[in-house]
């Protein structure tokens, strides 16, 4: 048995709530949602951590404007540095801007290592930015982080909704708690909607959050990000999740 597995529960024992922000496909604003949600929860006065679990395509540091030259403090593990009031951990602290081409068991090994070596301080909430899909990373998070709950992000796209349906089916089958479904990037009220297309699932529906054309210009600056219309809309979700 891998001795690191016995360490993971201890590393997470002082965290009140763990929310994995996930989505069935890429390009739906999942990472921006996770990063902004962490900022908004911290703004509420909560102690918040953000873990970028997208090992092959981490982007939270780009979204928040966190320099990769910083490094976690070493003290019986690695203590995530603080940025914009949020404790942040990412594989970019070790790989920098270099690609991380992982496959199969290497992905699981990297997830176990990150969970085992990261020493989080007492937190009210830990936000995990998940890679898209319901493959090994999602199943590993469910396996290794017992109290995790999922916030499923989708859009009104037929493809995104189909992927969200598959993800919710997997989570339901595995009896994993779903914090809710967030419909992002709403363009108009004439198309499909998450609350109608996914109504067979007994979950909370957040949103819709409408497309904010000013968001792109704010990426790379945590303070500007909080001033966007996107953040203003997501703040209502943060209030509900922060209770």
Helix content: 25-40%
Strand content is 15-25%
Instruction: Give, in spatial order, the strands making up the sheet with the most strands.
Output: 5-6-2-7-1-8-9-10
Number-wise, the strands total 10
**Largest sheet, if any?**
8 strands, mixed
Architecture, according to CATH? 3-Layer(aba) Sandwich
**Domain module count:** 1
Mean pLDDT: 93
- Measure the end-to-end span: 38 Å
What sort of overall outline do the alpha carbons produce when their principal axes are compared? Answer: globular
- The arrangement of helices and strands along the chain is HEHEHEEEEHHEHEHEHEHHH
Provide the CATH superfamily.
P-loop containing nucleotide triphosphate hydrolases
CATH topology: Rossmann fold
Count of separate DSSP helical elements: 11
Main structural class: alpha/beta
Low-confidence stretches: none
CATH class: Alpha Beta
Specify Rg, calculated over alpha carbons: 17 Å
Helices and strands in order:
Elements (H helix, E strand, L loop, with lengths): L4 H8 L2 E8 L7 H14 L4 E5 L7 H5 L8 E2 L3 E2 L2 E2 L2 E5 L1 H4 L9 H13 L5 E7 L6 H9 L4 E6 L3 H16 L3 E7 L10 H4 L7 E2 L8 H4 L3 H5 L2 H13 L2
Parallel strand pairs: 1-7, 1-8, 2-6, 2-7, 8-9, 9-10
Antiparallel strand pairs: 3-4, 5-6
Task: Summarize the structure in short.
The chain is an alpha/beta fold and 243 residues long. It is built from eleven helices and ten strands.
Describe this structure in words.
- The protein is α/β, with parallel strands linked by helices.
- The chain has a single domain (5-241), classed as Rossmann fold, CATH 3.40.50.300.
- 39% of the residues lie in helices and 19% in strands.
- The chain contains 11 helices and 10 strands.
- The strands form 2 sheets. It has an 8-stranded mixed beta sheet, sandwiched between helices.
- Strand 8, helix 7 and strand 9 (177-183) form a beta-alpha-beta unit.
- Helix 2 crosses helix 11 and helix 5 runs parallel beside helix 6.
- The longest helix is centred in the C-terminal third of the chain and has 16 residues, at 158-173.
- It is globular, with a radius of gyration of 17 Å.
